[in-house]
Input
Amino acid sequence: MTDKKDKKDNSGFDEIRDELDEKDLEEMQADEESAEGDIIEAKVDDAEFLGENEEENDDTSEYLLMLSPEEIESIIKERDEVKDQLLRMAADYDNYIKRTRREREENREILTSDILSAFLPVIDNFERAMNASDSTHDQLLTGIKMIYQQLLEVMRTFGVEQISADGKKFDPRYHEAMSTEPSSEHEDQTILEEFIKGYFYKDRLLRPAKVKVSVAMDETELAEAKEKLKTESEAKKKQAAADAKKDEKETGKKQAKQSDKEDDEENSGETQRDLDSRD
Output
């Protein structure tokens, strides 16, 4: 009875064993050794067949010959699960490394842009000094220009570039409109004047350019706009003159009251002195 059962088991096993060639066995061992050395310690729970000591691991092939088809199928399934787990862990770790590197780079870019932004007012003051200088201080102006160019060159080495604005089309992403001006000679939303320069740091906006923008009008509209501006300007002048005259009157009244008060105090003082002298 036992011999018949053994023959039946061996017959079924022969069919399975034919499908498991030497390459499959080598792959199983390589996967287990790689998992054990790199990320996790892969092992088969059934210590009866796949023991934890080196001698039993070396004899894995011999143990497999003693297993039933169901047990071999279970081992293969478990191997595939361990392999899938290792692949998932490796992918997660790779994503973690990439995400950490990206976040570190972004934080460095933010810190660098904050530091570079602090130098922009210094550059603005150099430009104001150059514009305000006259020909009587040629040497001083030359020195200022040299320092200004040196500072710009240092900023360029860090990736800072000026935004082109004058004569360009207004772009709210890079320009900030400080004022508008009616014009029949320029297209609508054309930058007429640049008050303060804007700057890029690589692909990051450090500061938008502050500009004056044109408002396109035909000759009739332009004449009406100029007349309106003239009227508003005259009205402001008249109001300013009226306010000044009013302030002058109030000042005169205050001075007159102060003078009367002083006169009264002086008269009172003289009267008191006369009374004192009579006594």
